[in-house]
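Q: How would the structure tokens look for this protein?
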Amino acid sequence: MIAIKNATLIMKDHFIPDAVIFIENGKISSFGEMRKAQIPEGCEVFDAEGLYVGPGFVDIHTHSDGTVFFQDDPVRASQHHLLHGTTSLLPALYYSMDTNAYVKAIGILREAMKDPACANIAGLYMEGPYLNTKFGCDRESNPWRGPVDREKHMPVIEAAYDLAKVWALAPERENILEFVCDVKAKNPNAVFAVAHSEAAPEQTEALMPYGLKIGTHHLNATGTLQKYPECRTPCVDETVYSNREIYAELICDSMGIHVDPYLLRLTRKIKGDDRIILISDAYACDGPIPEGYDGVDDINFDHAGEIAGSKMTLDIACRNMIKHTGASLVDVFKFASYNPSRAVGFYDRGEIATGKRADLVLVDYKMGIKKVFFGGKEVK
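A: Here is the predicted structure in token form.
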């Protein structure tokens, strides 16, 4: 048994100060205020020295460690995120891959998941294949133009069906329901996300009965419909706001480039704190920093000067969310751990509760990572 004492526990909606948490067989066995608990003899004791202890981060949408894609070096990317407190993650595979590239990358990550060094890989996030060709970095090389093609996408579904927790798509793509039904036939529990899209509300809402419940990087790579000149009509972002069931992913960089701080605060007001998911969307791209973006060091750009994801990990995203919105530590752990876990069906983690996985991070009040426990074991 392991005891972490002198901790301030970060719960779903409150703190427990001066607390102790017990770990047995990789799970949380009990916890509570130290004055009410007794540490058994022979227990391995770790003194948190007043640090905050929260559940490990769950990053459901990340492509890389900011430099190298997961499929190119899964150990390096996985370990980078783990050391920053991300104890569960879904590598995201982007729509610039053709059928063969998707299948190859899926195979590499499937093998990587057998390696203890990649044990925090918990599945895949398929950012594609059918997104709107107008949006996203590297869109000029999109091999998935035209109508849904079963011959092209079935090998991808066959390769990823049991690993893919989320399939991101543009609801306006021609015959998209055929693709959705092919995914559901292989995995009835698959979750869908509206992404890189200019779908009208009715197009997105038509897929909600099939499991669409995430807005991929909300307020990024979405279009605006206009029925009349100078009259804005509802599109993807408004649909995500309007539907309580849909979680809003947010990329929260330090300068508020992906999402303006005002819109971050607006999203909290509209969606509520139990429908926000912080993601890193870390990508690997070495394009030059465009003019006007001097000082930006936590996002990437492609060679056309387009924003290409981030260089962040979730601890950094949490810190930025605190700065931009006034969120508390309780709030950001909900955004970065509890909410993403529930969105993709990871009910055994994402909160401090008896019987849950002992994936824990120790942080200071500025969200500085001081220690990580993964499956009850201290990460060195």
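The radius of gyration is 21 Å.

The chain has a mean pLDDT of 94.

Upvote if useful.
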